[in-house]
Fold this sequence. Notes:
Strand content: 25-35%
Helix content: 10-25%
Largest sheet: 6 strands, antiparallel, barrel
Number of strands: 23
Number of helices: 7
Distance between the termini: 53 Å
Oligomer: single chain
Strand order of the largest sheet: 3-4-5-10-7-6
Number of domains: 3
Shape: flat
Amino acid sequence: MAFVRFAIALFLLGFLQAASAERIKDVTSIKGVRANQLVGYGLVVGLDGSGDQTSQTPFTVQSLKNMLSQYGIVLPPGTNPQVKNVAAVSVHAELPPFAKIGQTVDVTVSSLGNAKSLRGGSLLMTPLKGADGQIYALAQGNLIVGGLGVEGADGSSITINVPSVGRIPNGASIESEIANPFAAGDEITLHLKRADFTTAKRLADTINQVLGPNNARAKDSVTVAINAPQDISQRVGFMAFIENLEFQPGEAPARVIINSRSGTVVIGNHVKVYSAAVSHGNLSVTITNTVDVVQPGPFSGGTTAENVQSDIEVTAENNRMFRFPKGVTLNEIVRAVNQVGASPGDLVAILESLKQVGALSAELIVI
């Protein structure tokens, strides 16, 4: 019965393609299918004198002593080795979903002390732990450092990028798997990446049109639950089919985004204003100082003096007032502002004023 449903669904898929449609896999994620962060502490060795200054980073010396003691090398009490080719580092990686034992992932290595550069170093075996404190991977290998730091004998130096951070491609081997709820239960839950009731309803309706009624249910503005096969192999094929279905998401709410640092203004669709009149003009004040040199008379015993004269000119731009009628669209707003020669900064001031008087029908967000 399940194979018959799949055949019918594949046939109907060709009739569901719509203009500006989105694939389900591009706008949703599957509940429980996510990456997990790993972190560890280790030592990078083999540096060319650019490691930690052990007098200022006692944890590097302590870590070095602990490592040597594991191999039967015990330093005399009170001995603090002054090495410059060792750096204490933090190691972090991301464990992808469904990762299996023996697979490898990339790791990023960052200096914890005052090492000048990690270039040329090698990371010793470092356990990587998850948030639960369990070890899920082991990292080791030679670092690739994109930065460069050079220092001269006179104290001058030059630094390119960040030499205290490096990466090890495929540098960690997975030692333990994380349980995933994908195969558990009678249903699969999709989460929308952007919460929207209209999008959730359309997503459920699209799946029900293909699989039959009551197979998908929109629970809220983010969650859509779908009945799924119990057999894991059928479930994989089922999701491969579902995630490639296309549907028309709901349109985003009316928003105006203003970047206060760069002056960038992004106006979304459906942004409208009610009746309002705007007059925007700049007042320019120009002050010009003219210096005249005054010479004393012959044999007067006076000194040369300067006479400063200031000329002040005030110029007001002759920008006309323009009026927004009720229900103005995005294109009309931009065209009206451009006609008066307003800059992005002027546009920000106009939009903020329209919002304050209640004439802007949109959410104004300043970042």
